[in-house]
Specification:
The complex is a heterodimer of chains A (about 110) and B (about 250). Chain A has a domain of about 40 residues. Chain A is built from four helices and no strands. In chain A, α3 runs antiparallel to α4. Chain B has about 250 residues and is mainly α. Chain B folds into two domains: about 160 residues, no CATH class; about 55 residues, no CATH class. Helix content of chain B is about 70%, strand content about 0%. Chain B is built from twelve helices and no strands. In chain B, α1 runs parallel beside α9. Chain B is globular and about 60 Å long. Classes of the chains: A mainly alpha (about 110), B mainly alpha (about 250). At the A-B interface, α1, α2, α3 and α4 of A face α2, α3, α4, α5 and α6 of B.
């Protein structure tokens, strides 16, 4: 890990908020004027998905902060539990997240 | 999420726009509130872990109100990523709001409503409120739709700072295993959210490329890793899915 928080938190949060509202602003402005099935929007979706997939893998496999002290196998077991519950519960995300998290609580308590 | 499944064609429209507003509040109070609440609790505990104050968490929740971008922002702040890399990552992650807003608002527009109200209401459009409002549109009269969106969105928006605060303080108070699980909520939630809606080859390819590129680039260009993962992985997936290999052809029909 590199040195944390190089910039002021308020600056980072403000820029992130402006970057987010820009999408809502543009969406409001363009509503009714563009087709939301266009190739450009499909490309944005692809970039978002790839970006978030990279982020999620990193957060589970190479996490920051307190989670970094847990062994890999615990986080992977908890994630696998979530996936299995999701698959057999007909995509019940709430239940899957709950049980996956509880497995992490159990593992980190026991070992 | 599962609450979106039963069709609502049997229920009748609300009597007035005011009733539609409260209908939106009522219908958001349930699975949508619980899922969003848990997610913001996770964000609050993450802000604590990053070493920021609860006010930073609240400021981010109220000003941004789009969780994946907030999580990426906090992550990149912690790892000391350059400001430009963080802003670009948030721009791309939350760019998905643009088509959400652009596709919902044409159904909601009503003659005589001042345009600024739509710019304000767009703040309440995020994935959860989009799904919740879209599925209810057929039951709502034109002049009730903005009210319904505001009721639905305002309940979620109003509860998110409370959840952020709870997560922030829980992280320090509860036993360490529970704190760790709180921080694990969002990665797990996002992971499953991806798998919810995977009928497009471009989405599947994007996930595979992103998951593979992310850790690989982390060792090579840590600071710009997320942006490069997204742009390279996403563009490759988008392009591949457009080639005839993945287009629905005689083999697939």
């Amino acid at each position: 890990m590199t040195e944390p928080s190089l910039y002021s938190p308020v600056l980072m949060i403000t820029l992130a908020a402006v970057a987010t509202y820009a999408s809502r602003l543009l969406g409001t402005f363009l509503s009714g004027k563009i087709s939301t099935d266009s190739a450009v929007i499909e490309w944005i979706t692809c970039v978002t998905y790839a970006l978030l997939a990279g982020l999620v893998v990193r957060m589970i496999w190479l996490p920051i902060g307190a989670l970094a002290q847990t062994p890999d196998w615990m986080r992977l077991t908890a994630a696998a539990t979530g996936l299995i519950v999701f698959a057999i519960s007909r995509k019940n995300i709430g239940l899957a997240v709950l049980l996956g998290s509880l497995v992490l609580v159990a593992l980190t308590s026991l070992f | 999420m599962t609450a979106t499944e039963p069709p609502t064609t049997t229920s009748s429209a609300f009597a007035t726009p005011r009733a539609a507003f409260w209908g939106g509040v009522r219908e958001a109070a349930g699975v949508p509130v619980m899922v969003m609440g848990a997610s913001f609790v996770g964000f609050g505990s993450m802000i604590n872990d990053v070493g920021w104050s609860v006010w930073h968490g609240l400021y981010s929740t109220l000003s941004t109100w789009a969780l994946p971008g907030q999580v990426a922002m906090a992550e990149m702040a912690y790892t000391g990523a350059p400001l430009a890399a963080m802003v670009l990552a948030v721009v791309f992650i939350n760019a998905r709001l643009m088509p959400l807003v652009a596709s919902l608002l044409p159904h909601i527009r009503c003659p005589g409503v001042a345009p600024w109200k739509y710019y304000l209401a767009s703040m309440l459009i995020a994935a959860t409120s989009w799904v919740g409002t879209m599925r209810r549109l057929p039951d709502l009269k034109q002049d009730q739709r903005l009210s319904y969106l505001c009721g639905y969105g305002l309940l979620l928006y109003g509860l998110s700072p409370i959840a952020t605060t709870i997560g922030f303080y829980l992280a320090g108070q509860v036993p360490q295993p529970v704190t760790l699980a709180l921080m694990f909520l969002n990665p797990l939630y996002f992971l499953l959210l991806f798998l919810f809606d995977l009928h497009k080859p471009s989405k599947v390819l994007s996930l595979v490329f992103g998951a593979a590129l992310g850790p690989a680039l982390y060792l090579w260009v840590p600071n710009w890793r997320l942006i490069i993962t997204g742009l390279v992985g996403g563009t490759a997936a988008w392009w591949l899915a457009r080639t005839k290999l993945f287009k629905r052809g005689p083999h697939h029909d």
